[in-house]
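From the shared-data thread, chain only:
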Amino acid sequence: MAEAHQAVGFRPSLTSDGAEVELSAPVLQEIYLSGLRSWKRHLSRFWNDFLTGVFPASPLSWLFLFSAIQLAWFLQLDPSLGLMEKIKELLPDWGGQHHRLRGVLAAALFASCLWGALIFTLHVALRLLLSYHGWLLEPHGAMSSPTKTWLALVRIFSGRKTMLFSYQRSLPRQPVPSVQDTVRKYLESVRPILSDEDFDWTSVLAQEFLRLQASLLQWYLQLKSWWASNYVSDWWEEFVYLRSRHSLMVNSNYYMMDFLYVTPTPVQAARAGNAVHALLLYRHRLNRQEILPTLLMGMRPLCSAQYEKIFNTTRIPGIQKDHIRHLRDSRHVAVFHRGRFFRVGTHSQSGLLSPRALEQQFQRILDDPSPACPQEEHLAALTAAPRDVWAQVRSSLKVQAEDALEAVEGAAFFVSLDSEPAGLTREDPAASLDAYARALLAGRGHDRWFDKSFTLIVFSNGKLGLSVEHSWADCPISGHMWEFTLATECFQLGYSADGHCKGHPDPSLPQPQRLYWHLPEKIHLSISLALRGAKTLSGNIDCHVFPFSHFGKSFIKRCHLSSDSFVQMALQLAHFREPQRRALFRLAVEKHQSLLKAAMSGQGVDRHLFALYIVSQFLHLRSPFLDQVHSEQWQLATSQIPVQQIHLFDVHNYPDYVSSGGGFGPADDHGYGVSYIFMGDDTITFHISSKKSSTKTDSHRLGQHIEDALLDVASLFQEGQRLKPRCGGLQEEDLGHRCGSLPCHTRGSRAPTKSTNF
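Structure, as tokens:
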């Protein structure tokens, strides 16, 4: 998201100038280390790799094969065609009484070899099948006979019971696109926004790059693609995220919102109890690989590696480079309330604490009258400071307050019990949504631990939200977790009639542990400076959230257009404010779909150009073309928040109980960050951010342009379809039907037990 342009400033420290062979040594070393890291990741999850290594078979299948061989041997049949006899001859002779044992060992060895050969064949076949991308090129809604055959074979070779990491060893390597194709696509993409003179100059630089440097840089990427499973992902994580020295707040984190129109309970501690319990249930399913792997367009499995770092993960600051610290397990969460830090255990000897027990612990924190210690209240502002500054202070903090720091960094995740309400209000719906987004993205600058993989934020009126650090995973991963959390805490766990978690408190539980920080004087100034910088950064962010309810994806589908491409083209129209005609709009949508499918099949432009740039920096090989590519400013950064588990929600009977998505900061000081989510069939919620210090941007103005653009484009395809009239933003009449409590249960639905107004 916003931090991606930090790759522009990357300048590695390599060896001194010398011959080309000497200069190429560091990049070869880096390629070697990339592959080594890839193999270490495999070794670190041995059991998962064992299960995925035998997929689509199972360990029990070996026992079945061994038993079948033994049965055949008992019936005086030799399925090995004499191989087992040769294996017996190679085994040591332990005497006549052990003759039968030699036969069993020979059968076991033969069964193992045969089993391994079958698994290897299945792996190769599945990897070859998953390398096929022809289905992406077919028109939406149509499926050719070859694709139907391909899909049937994938399902056959995938087995019947897939787990989260089942496909990991069968996924093909990330292909390195042709450098000629990448340059051609890049020039094609910048042509509409460059003047004739600028485009001619860029084309000259591109041709010079292809002639002089491209082949050498491409050779290194090809080499890395054979050694590591992905030629770009580890460099993207390191040079785009971990080497960035800017504040994580706004620049790297993003947020996820609660239900937009309803809050299941106004009791803050109860909402926290159910949400924390639901999150830990998700972690339990994650550890047992009970989460199904994500399928691209319902057909092709995607890599599941990013799921591993959702919980028990912290981004540790460094002077030049951060690193990700991930623990195998954690039995507590760190909680922040009114400037104080607490450690709350999440498990007892009998297992995970019940929601009611967790509510009790959170209520004890809310009722605790003890004040914050000097500077403790603003301590977390250090995590919003520039990374090198925070790294230096943390080294002192680790000596002075090691136990408290470890309790926070070693927690499953961070919980912030906010003292203020948030969410949509009837009095001022537009402003309240904007304030809600700003509170989730930045807070007050000192009430989020931005280093943690995510912070669960529970406001005083029971509203929820997430603040997510971006380096460990992309939004679909945290979005998947968030969908499960909202559905589970609301529909499955539920609340009693008085708004509390179901069940009974546990008076035997010890009090939450208050964390004490021994902060020397030299840290006080650093905290004050960090707080000042965080407030300046948070005060400069302009957030605007609005649900567009004139039409949604059902109308777009009736236009026979991709819903994502439809919105993307409307965003371009809103940003540049050009008039479009129907034919040109449809052509633009088709072009966007073509580029999207190319990116999904590994033939995108950005990552390839980025990797070429990294190699050129390692080699001290200056390319004016690559320098220009990576000096561009991203004035409009967009992202769709996917709804991945629609089966968890009853959108027809309870359309308000759907996640309202989330947002992120702008990628440029004079640009916009725009995300959107399709809520059901008839609403699209937009999240817009920009910086108040810019005279070129205004989030509310862009929101109005987006609404106008969507309606203007829809009018081209309306053809008798009825749309809601223009109403100039979120209106109170749109909220009228959402004000009452919902029934406890209706046939065929999973309604929450209680609902409050907003």
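Residues 163 and 289 are 5 Å apart (CA to CA).
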